[in-house]
Amino acid sequence: MHRTRYNALRLTLAISPRGPLLVKAGGISANPSLPDMQFVRTYRADVGETVYIPGSSLKGVVRGFVEKALRTLDDQNTWRWACPTFPDEQQSCAKRLEKEENSATVYRRSCGACRIFGHTRLRGRAAFTDLFPIGDVTTEIRYGVAISRLTHAVAHGPFEMEVAVAGIFEGHLVLENYEIWQLGLLASALEAMNQGLVKVGFGKNRGFGEVEVTVKKARVDEVSGDYAPTTLRGLSAFAHKDQEAYGLFPPDDLRDLPEPTDEVNLGIYTRRIYDSEGWQAIAQKAIAILSAQ
Ligand SMILES: [Zn+2]
What we know:
8 helices, 25% helix, two-stranded antiparallel ribbon, globular, 11 strands, binds zinc ion
């Protein structure tokens, strides 16, 4: 079933620091004129060297939020909704399903978090692209020390931290063959991030990492069919007969959504575009179904 792409969502995300933001570069620079903790950079043909937010670091914090939210549903010692993340852990989905061949069974028996983000035997449904600056990003140097927990003395430092304090990073969250509840969880993760409950990058206990998250645009592709443009369909709406084998959850769709700002017929797919406001309406409905389950 999942060889076909039934539905796909692409959100255009704009992320701005609300205070110091430091997504650290790995390793230590050989250049002594650079700060000790540098914001991660990459090279782009059009602009040269630039700071950016790797998609993997965003995915990490979003997965962390989703796991925490799902664990509240787990009874003691059942890992149905969010398995333990350590890869060697016997109860992790990757370990439990190591020898399972049937892809429907792998999906059905995977925990909620792994159904979204994947494990070694299951491809994740959600992906983040890298986020690049739109215009200028302002960075500053902050100084920090590390305090030894044993002696309460300065263990090392002061060291320099390069933080972004203003500017916009833009990139995409892509979700394919998603169930409606997965959409709801991701939407609430983005909202939690925007409210400062989910922080990004280094120094969370220093107050770093609060960001403003704006969904500038949402693009929804669905296999074309006879349905209202105000309905958004989850995987189970396309795969009714596989519902049990894959263990898909209700609801099949979200209804009574605002009209898209644009609708394009791509043949097999119908593409709908929503602006920020349209996405907000979708997000609110998707989040509401989580508490209705
Ligand atoms: Zn899992």
